[in-house]
Amino acid sequence: MKMPSLEDELFPxxxxxxxxxxxxxxxxxxxxxxxxxxxxxLWALFLIALTxxxxxxxxxVDSGSRxxxxxxxxxxxxxxxxxxxxxxxxxxxxxLVTGAAGFVGTHVSLALKKRGDGVVGLDNFNNYxxxxxxxxxxxxxxSHGILVxxxxxxxxxxxxxxxxxxxxxxxxxLAAQAGVRYAMENPNSYVHSxxxxxxxxxxxxxxxxxxxxxxxxxxxxxxxxxxxxxxxEADRTDQPAxxxxxxxxxxxxxxxxxxxxxxxxxxxxxxxxxxxxxxxxDMAYFxxxxxxxxxxxxxxxRGKNRSDLARDFTYIDDIVKGCLGSLDTSGKSTGSGGKKRxxxxxxxxxxxxxxxxxxxxxxxxxxxxxxxxAKRNIVDMPGNGDVPFTHAxxxxxxxxxxxxxxxxxxxxxxxxxxxxxxxxxxSNRKGVR
Length: 433
Ligand SMILES: O=C(O)[C@H]1O[C@H](OP(=O)(O)OP(=O)(O)OC[C@H]2O[C@@H](n3ccc(=O)[nH]c3=O)[C@H](O)[C@@H]2O)[C@H](O)[C@@H](O)[C@@H]1O
Prior knowledge:
13% strand, NAD(P)-bd_dom_sf, golgi apparatus, UDP-glucuronate 4-epimerase, disordered N terminus, UDP-glucuronate 4-epimerase activity, Epimerase_deHydtase
């Protein structure tokens, strides 16, 4: 038997086919070779095309997933924003509420929605205090048809987008880094939210067409070391005692500039130690309640010469009435597209209770409502930004929109304690009301 030659190996004969000569074989080899090269080339092209399409598909999927996983953006999201901003009463307003998952923001958003105004919330859900409380407030708002967009004031694209989607008539600006004493720990957060964030919001509002009217939260802390009692809007506010107060005072000056240059209608509200259900865990009435219930001591500060500190504690429902009154009387911004067309209102109001209560009395009331004795630890007020007392003169707000607080500390704390016990699951505990 003939051993297969290399040539035979290369060009195996096909049974039944005639034998080909060497030249023909070479020719065939060439054609085969060429054919296989072009096939390879085609395959290579095919693979390249496949790889390219795979890569572009991947990047589509990537950008798509980024797009869909972002907390804002997209057709469905815009629809939600529009729905939330929908006005359900004649002459109503559509309001962007910043800091909507905050204490005051939640209450104001609900009150606006209940009377038929459109509300879209914005909140960055930072962890200055327990974010789960903010999430719970957000759920409450959602259950009333209010969308809370998760995002930061410093996100220019988000702010612009919101104004592209909705022609907000008003902005209720409550987002801020709050807390007087925390400013020594984290000064940058105050600059980030209360200065840079505010400017970003004003930049967006001044360019919006139509421009919204802006009502925003200043603070009683701007009175700082002012000793003239009660505090009136015309009193000195150039002696802040904390960086927090300084950023709020800066906010008053910054908003004035935007009113002056761009015709934005501005109302600044100086809130006086607001308290109530769904409140802020960093505030004294809240942390005292927590400690008293847990049997832990509370630290009570006292001022010079062992004097008691006092605050014009103001109940949240009264503050909400003040916010709505301010929105209703804000007047219009006059500019459009960044151009001023005429003078616009610039207002500042105290929103307080007009009857300061000493901190030891606050603790007495809590003890009575909780039916638990507090373990008092009394220390001299550290030099950390605190002021000895606050006391609001509210005649301007009274004159302008009939502001009249009606809840005293005893009544307001009772409502707060009832909420606290229910929210934190103490309701069934014996001895605690
Ligand atoms: O009205 C305002 O402008 C400010 O009110 C509060 O600031 P503050 O009045 O200092 O409220 P708390 O922190 O609740 O303090 C209330 C009182 O309790 C005292 N306190 C606070 C904390 C503590 O551990 N012990 C204590 O005795 C404070 O010295 C103060 O006299 C808010 O925290 C600020 O965000 C707000 O801007």
